[in-house]
Amino acid sequence: MIIMDGLILSRYLTLFHLKSLSTTDFSRLLTYFNNIEKICSATDAELRLLNLSQHQIRAIRSDPVKSLNLQAIEKDKQWASQPDNHIVCYEDEDYPPLLKQISRPPPLLYVQGNPQVLTLPHMAVVGSRAASSSGRRNAMWIARDLSAHGLSVVSGLAAGIDTQAHLGAMAGIGITVAVLGTGVDNIYPRLNQELAQRIRQLGAIVSEFPLGAKPLAQHFPRRNRIISGMSLGVLVVEAALRSGSLITARLAMEQDREVFACPGAISNIMTRGCHKLIRDGAKLVENCADILAELKPAFDDPLWRGRLQDSAELDRLSRKDRLNPESFNRQESLVLELIGDDSCHMDVLLITSKLELAQLNGILLGLESKGAISLQAGRYSRQ
Known about the structure:
Layout: H1 6-16, H2 23-33, H3 36-41, H4 44-49, H5 54-60, H6 70-80, E1 85-89, E2 108-113, E3 122-126, H7 133-148, E4 152-155, H8 161-171, E5 176-179, H9 193-202, E6 204-207, H10 219-229, E7 233-236, H11 244-254, E8 258-261, H12 272-279, E9 283-284, H13 288-299, H14 311-322, H15 330-339, E10 343-345, H16 346-353, H17 357-369, E11 373-376, E12 379-382
Parallel strand pairs: 3-4, 3-7, 4-5, 5-6, 7-8, 8-9
Antiparallel strand pairs: 1-2, 2-6, 10-12, 11-12
Helix pairs in contact: 7-8, 10-11
C-alpha cells in the first residue's frame, strides 16, 4: 500500500525537482535523517554539517506551493493519479528493502504496474543486447526457473538478454520488474512497447528519472545500480569485456551482492566478459540450482520469510500449467505435432512447417521456455 500522499509527497517532489539540490544530495539527506519531515525541520547547523550551502538550505525550506518547479510537481501528481501509476518514496513501505542499503538510494521511484512487487526478493538477469541464440535461450530458461522458485526477475528491458529474462520470468510464476534509464513514460527501446505493457500487467516498470527523461548515456550506469541494488544477486548471461553488464556486476560486488556468470564458447566474444567475471570470483552458473544454492542463506533472512514457496511444488505446478494443451497457440501446436514422439532437426521443421526461419525460431524458443521441448545435439524433442 502506498503511504505517501498530500504534503509529504509534495515535499519529496519539491526537493526532487530543486535545481540547486542534486539527487545525490537528496539521497544523502534521506539516509542521514531517514525521513523528509526531519530534513525539513533540521537546523541550519545540521544541514551545513552535510556540506549544504546556504542557498540549498533556503531552497529546502521553501513552501511547496510557492516552488518555482510547481508545474513539474503538479505534472507528477497528475500522472500518479492515473490507474497503475505510482510514486514510491524512500519512506514508502513498497520501497525495495535492499535498495535502501546502497550508498546512494534513489529518493523516489516512478512506478507503473503493481508497486507491491518491489518488496519481493529479486534476482537480476542481464547481458548483451547482441546476444547469441544460445545466450537468449539460457536467459529465458534460467529466468523462468528463478520465477518458478518464487523470485522476481529484474532486468533493464533492453534488447537481447534483458528481453529474454523478462519473457522467461513471465513464463514462470510471472513476476518481473523492468528498470529503465528513461522516464517510465518513455519506453526504450521502442520495439519493446508490447513487452512493457505485459510487464505492467504482471509486475512493474520502474525509473528514478523524471517523466519524459530521454535515454541519455549517463542514465544507464545509474539504472544499473538500481538493478543490482534491489536484487539479492546478479546473473550475467553473456557480455563483452567492455559492456554495461559488467558495470552492473561491478556495482553488485560493491553493494555486497552475489555475482553469477554463465560460461560459453571461447570463440564467442560475447562470453569473454562472463569468463572474466568467473576468473575474478563470480559463481559459474549452468542452471537455476547453482544460483539457488548460493542464495539459500539469504532466504533464511526474516525479510523474505514466507515470500519463497516450496520449490518442488512450484516446479510441479509450473510444469503442469506449461504443458497444458490449452496453453499452446495454433502455430506452437503445429510445431509440436511435426516434432512428434521422436526427435526432429531444425532443417526438417523449417521445410515441413513452411514457416520463415525467424518465425520458427521464435516459436521454438517459446516452446522451450514452457518446458514443452528440449534441444540436444541439434535435434528437438518433446518433453
